[in-house]
Amino acid sequence: MRSKLTLKPAVDYATGSNAKGRQMANYTQVVDSGCPIRSYFGVAQADTDSSLKAGQRGPSLLEDYHFREKISHFDHERIPERVVHARGAAFHGEFVLHTAIPEYTSAAVLNDTSRRTPVFLRFSTVAGSRGSADTVRDVRGFAVRFYTEEGNWDIVGNNIPVFFIQDAIKFPDVIHAVKPEPHNEIPQAQTAHDNAWDFFSLTPETAHMMLWTMSDRAIPRSYAMMNGFGVHSFILVNAEGKRHFVKFHFKPKLGVHSLVWDEALKLAGQDPDFHRRDMYDAIEDGNYAEWEFGVQVVPEEKEHDFDFDLLDATKLIPEDLVPVKYIGTLTLNRNVSEYFPETEQVAFCTQHIVPGIDFSNDPLLQGRNFSYFDTQISRLGGPNFNQIPINMPLCPVFNNQRDAMHRMTINKGGANYWPNRFDAPHPVPPQKGGFLSEPLPVSGTNIRARGEKFSDYLSQAQLFYNSMSDVEKKHMVFAFSFELGKVDDTGIHERIVVRLNEIDHSLAKQVAVNIGQPVPPNTTKNHGKKSAFLSQIDGKAQSFTPKGRKVGILLYDEFDTAPVLALQTALKAAGTMAMIVGPRKGSVTSGATTLPTQFTFETCRSTHFDAIYVAGGTGEAYTRGLNTGRLIHAVREAYMHQKPIAVSGSAVEWLQRIALPGEVSPAISGEGKVEVEKGVVILEGATESPQFAKTLIDLLAKHRVWERDVGHIAA
Which fold has domain 550-708? Predict the structure, then answer.
């Protein structure tokens, strides 16, 4: 019987919205009942369960090539994981340009609004291993590949616009410091240890990034609710050769929102795959994540007009000074078919750019341009990693590189050098699409040094802290206190308190008290400046929407059907996922209504949802169910995490008397009446109410009920 397995090592160079999908399909195996197990080279196998032996109980034979192929492949299945960004998840999508910018760049992908450019976006953490959890406090990688018609363009960025260090020569030091300590490989996926904070305390340039990672930005609610930044200043070059500095931005349409710390800690144990599962499920359900893509542009002649250096990766360009011009939309709309060949083998490189885009002299970027390519050679077994399907560009590739491990391309012809008598392959001038860096004067003495403005490490750290809301400042105090509470060396405590006091005295004072250090004298010279764009709670760039949110509907058999069904309908219309949580897997029933359960009370917690609704019901059994510890804990935990809570019918009295006694007691009278207090929405009776659903949805859009955030979030 002929196998239905297809594996065509051909390249589809067609363009269009699914061009990369068609190309990947050429390397996709469709396996069904018509596919016998075969050896590497196509021989069908009759038995793959028992190795070949000399007698039923005799020794295994060396001639068993099927066993040797199978076990040898297994022995080598694991490739070296990434030194940083090891834990990640990636998704396919497309980029659509809506505003051309020929005044800044000749790059076709940023000028042709008729294109639908395939993209591949990998999210990741930085410090942890591939087996760590999604919700740890960490920077998040935001690496985007545009499969343009002119070649691959990679923006290998983060969800934070700045970095710890200014020069790539310090990269091994910062990563060694934040990784688990070498003598015991502890702790995994966190910087709450002596080495990390020793490095931070002794490296002043980390001050700005230190505040970002201790802010809520380091514990995002979801991949779809975090920014992406190119971090570095790149260069855009237009058709006339004029150069502009540029910072790349991705702003999520769902807004920039975060978990709270206690919630993040619990999710790391309850669901280590929380972020990747959230995005995977959303795409499967057709709720595609979207970002607005924008550029912050500074003409080359204005390079020195700021009190910071554009080449310093520890600095951002405040949007108050240079607005972001949004020019396109990036949408993620397809999950990978198999994790390893796509997500694990994708090789992002900062030096992957296309004509019209160039590099600045940022010393961190310059070093990354070498490091990333060098790393991929080690990880992926040689220089031919570009021939792995996920890494292949959509445009044809011709060059004179040959041989090496895992070479797949077969080149016809007798010349593998240039120039040659056949004139192929040959360079092309810029007018025909050839990449050529625009001439740039370079002069100076070779020296190990940095620009003069690089030495200011306090101004933007103060700008960031000053711009935070009171709630966000409090969260930062708790974050510093938690991390430093895990540090044993009191000398590190002393140095960090001194560093924080340089930024803000109130911050230093609160942290010092929490970690048992003397309060330093108020010698801080805080400039008092703020940015209107940096706060996640009241920043000008923030978006608030119920889309992409999840509501857990907790109920038993004999629930009140009218309010439950009405709320389900309203949530779906608002782009919010309503997920039924019941006492068992399968379904719950009330009269003629049966609802499938996505979770049981044992397989989820309130941490899995953005809000919870406890429905009322009828009968003594329903009352006993409400009084179980799981439901009481769910409500109290959601309340502690500042999430909206809704109750109706018999659950109202239960909430006021048992679940949240003394916290919520609005006076309600009359069937169908709706009231809200401290983010708790109460519907009297078992009827439906449009106001009930609208109130809950409006609270969802605000992300949290911050008025409840009055003290340290404790378990």
Answer: Rossmann fold (3.40.50)
